[in-house]
Amino acid sequence: MALTANNKFTFLGVLVAALVIGLVAWSYHKKTSNTELVIGISPPFANPLKVAVEEAKQQGINVKLVEFSDWNTPNITLNHGDIDANYFQHQPFLDNAIKETQFKLKALDKGVTTHVGLYSKKYHSLDELPDQARVVIPNDPVNQGRALLLLQQAKLITLKNPENHLSNLQDIAANPKKLQFIEVEGPQTARAVDDADLVFSYPHYLRLAKTIDPNDALILDDNTNTRYSILFVVRDDYQQQHPEKAAQLEKFIKIYQTSAKVKQTLNDEIGSKLWFPGWK
Q: Which residues cross the membrane (predicted)?
């Protein structure tokens, strides 16, 4: 059917109106999505952060948490600019990641610091550990170094440089029990407790995996500094490129650090004696 002149004008008017409405809606969506903070996290850190998200919402700060199951993707995604920040790693891990990838990332602020421990379902003390016991440790350079320092603290091995937090298996000077080391990805250490003789792991991952009570460590690290504090990490240029969002992110971090509800959730999720604030 042919359109008359009046019908054409009517049709064009409707089309223009539809376009205007569409542009307004798109603009609103873009504005809304641009004001939302997106933070990449590891699952064990989720619940305390969710509490902070709810409190931040009451102050007009919208935060979306995106969970990653590994320790590589959060930095890749952040470096690409797909998220505003991530929260899963400590400074030695970040330093090593930047060294290996040349990513332009930096720590914005500190979160919690957790102790680490050696765990076993087969033995009730380190003295019971037999020769050639199978010991699970992380396979990444930084957390493997942390595991070896704890094994040295437990007097199970001796390192060539007792102070080197980046030691690896080749840096073991003495291994009197001839321990057999099994290297796995850090998050998987919590699930290895059922099979190995001894496992180095993290209370928050053990709590999530429900494989063993995090308080039942045969030994905990005696570290009380904040070298291993979990960091809120952003791109190097984030504050310059996104000053308003950076300000919102800093407010969110302050909520996380000071909220009584967040503190209680951290106690519930990790254990009150197994973490301490890295920002103090």
A: 9-28
